[in-house]
Amino acid sequence: MALRTQFQNSSEIGVFVKLTNSYCLVPIAECEAFYSVFEGELSDFIKVIHTTIGGCRVVGTLCVGNKNGLLVPNSTTDKELQHLRNSLPDSVKIARVEERLSALGNVVACNDYVALVHPDLDRETEEVLADTLGVEVFRQTLADQVLVGSYSCLTNQGGMVHPKTPIEDQDELSSLLQLPLVAGTVNRGSGAIGAGMVVNDWIAFCGRDTTATEISLIESIFKLSDKGPNNINQMRSVLVESMTS
């Protein structure tokens, strides 16, 4: 299932939220309607944690995580770090890293097994990432974009990448990650997929501007509904037609 929502008139859900298979981080703000969407759908399964990172609400942009761990930037305060340690499941490791590319959510895309990272990510950060999240790391660009976290989304079921990613690159990446991939958009044609949605193995939350066709593709590639992967090529062509018409 994929649901539409927005945070204080912004459809860039992925900027503010970090969703994994074992926890969900949301920003601290006066926005009860936004929180109720997440808590209503997730609280029976995983914990929804209200937090800031470095005093900022752009939680999704600043951190990266999966069911195994959470990586936060050096700007994270001791108090925030302690709050996260106290709130996260015991099985989840947490690490704070000194990284020049401090918007970790923009430069890393991952599931529970693999991670795509910005080609210039520090080697030490890469090692901490691999250890904390328990992933195999690949340095990559998507359609010549280095911000792989902003322009893709991965789960253990599948992945969506920037709409201008060539088919050959998609196939090569799919083979590398051992995941079905599709090029797509959110929020009525936006290629900033990681910024426009969050998804785990059973649910997705997209920006309010996301169209029905985009939601169908999201539900199909991430296997969130009864619609199987067979519909992807058909929906891809519909998506391309709608973008060019």
Which descriptors apply to this entry?
245 residues, three-stranded mixed sheet, single chain, 10 helices
Brief account:
With 245 residues, this protein is an alpha/beta fold.
Q: How are the elements arranged and paired?
A:
Elements: E1 2-5, H1 13-16, E2 18-19, E3 23-27, H2 32-42, E4 47-51, H3 59-62, E5 64-65, E6 69-73, H4 78-87, E7 93-97, H5 104-107, E8 108-110, E9 114-117, H6 123-133, E10 136-139, E11 152-154, E12 159-161, H7 167-177, E13 181-183, H8 193-196, E14 197-199, E15 204-207, H9 212-221, H10 232-244
Parallel strand pairs: 1-15, 3-4, 6-7, 9-10, 12-13
Antiparallel strand pairs: 2-3, 5-6, 8-9, 11-12, 14-15
Shape: globular
Give the fraction of residues assigned to helices. Answer: 25-40%
Q: Which residues sit in consecutive blocks of at least 5 with pLDDT less than 50?
A: 226-232
Average of per-residue pLDDT values: 92
How would you describe this protein?
The protein is α/β, with parallel strands linked by helices and 245 residues long. It is 33% helix and 22% strand. It contains 10 helices and 15 strands. The chain has helices at residues 13-16, 32-42, 59-62, 78-87, 104-107, 123-133, 167-177, 193-196, 212-221, 232-244; strands at 2-5, 18-19, 23-27, 47-51, 64-65, 69-73, 93-97, 108-110, 114-117, 136-139, 152-154, 159-161, 181-183, 197-199, 204-207. The longest helix is centred in the last third of the chain and has 13 residues, at 232-244. Mean pLDDT is 92; it is low at 226-232.
